User: Which sequence fits this backbone?
C-alpha cells in the first residue's frame, strides 16, 4: 500500500542553523501539507501546497519557513534559522484529487538546542 | 473558525468491552470529519471519515463513528476493545469547501487493559 515517507526520522540542530525536512508524498497525489506537533500538544497546520504554490499557510508559517517541490516527487520544508520553539514533530501529508483523506507520514522529530 | 474538542484526555476500558472516544466540533457550513490514530513513534494513521451520506461510518480495525449534526458530535466507537487498540486518537475537522487544512483535537489516549 502506498505511503508517505519522511526523512530524517530524527534531527538535532543548533539554534540559528538551517534545516530541511524531506517528504515523499504518495505518487499521483496533488495536495501536500506540513503539520507540526509540539510535545504534548495538538497537531497544528503549517502550510498547504497545490499546483506548485502555497494555497494556505498558518500564522506559524512565517518568513523563516519555506516549502518546495523541487523534482516532482519530493516535498521539502525548510526552516532558515531555527529557534528553540521550533522543536517539534513535523508531519508531511498528501491527498489525491478526489479523495478527501490526507495521508500522513511517520514524522521527523526536530530538536533545536 | 473551526475547532475540535476531545473532552477526555484518557479513556480506560477492559478488553472485550465496548469503547467510545468523544469528539465535538465547530465549523461553519457542513463538516468533513476524520479520526486518526497514533501509535508510539509512528505517524498519524487514518481510521475513518464522514463526508456525506449515512451518519454511521465504518472504518479500519472494526472502528465506527456516528455523525450527529444536532449535537455537532462525531464519537468514535468499537463494540469490543482489544489491547492492541491502545493508542492516541485524534479527531479532526475541515470545512467542505475552500480551505483544506485539518483542525485537530488535543487527542485522547485509549488504554485497553487485558
Assistant:
Amino acid at each position: 500500500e502506498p505511503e508517505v515517507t519522511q526523512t530524517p526520522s530524527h534531527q538535532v540542530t543548533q539554534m540559528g542553523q538551517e534545516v530541511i525536512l524531506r517528504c515523499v508524498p504518495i505518487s499521483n497525489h496533488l495536495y501536500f501539507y506540513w503539520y507540526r506537533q509540539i510535545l504534548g500538544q495538538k497537531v497544528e497546520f503549517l502550510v498547504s501546497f497545490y499546483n506548485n504554490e502555497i494555497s494556505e499557510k498558518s500564522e506559524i508559517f512565517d518568513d523563516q519557513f519555506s516549502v518546495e517541490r523541487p523534482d516532482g516527487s519530493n516535498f521539502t520544508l525548510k526552516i532558515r534559522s531555527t529557534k528553540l520553539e521550533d522543536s517539534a514533530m513535523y508531519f508531511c501529508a498528501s491527498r489525491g484529487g478526489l479523495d478527501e483523506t490526507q495521508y500522513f507520514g511517520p514524522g521527523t522529530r526536530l530538536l533545536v538546542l | 473558525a473551526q475547532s475540535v474538542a476531545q473532552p477526555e484526555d484518557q479513556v480506560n476500558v477492559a478488553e472485550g468491552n465496548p469503547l467510545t472516544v468523544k469528539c465535538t466540533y465547530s465549523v461553519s457550513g457542513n463538516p468533513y470529519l476524520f479520526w486518526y490514530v497514533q501509535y508510539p513513534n509512528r505517524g498519524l494513521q487514518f481510521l475513518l471519515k464522514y463526508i456525506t451520506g449515512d451518519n454511521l461510518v465504518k472504518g479500519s480495525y472494526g472502528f465506527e463513528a456516528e455523525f450527529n449534526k444536532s449535537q455537532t458530535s462525531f464519537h468514535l466507537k468499537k463494540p469490543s476493545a482489544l489491547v492492541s487498540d491502545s493508542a492516541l486518537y485524534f479527531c479532526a475537522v475541515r470545512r467542505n469547501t475552500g480551505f483544506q487544512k485539518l483542525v485537530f483535537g488535543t487527542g485522547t489516549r485509549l488504554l485497553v487493559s487485558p
In short: The mean pLDDT of chain A is 94. The first strand of chain A starts at residue 5 and ends at 7.
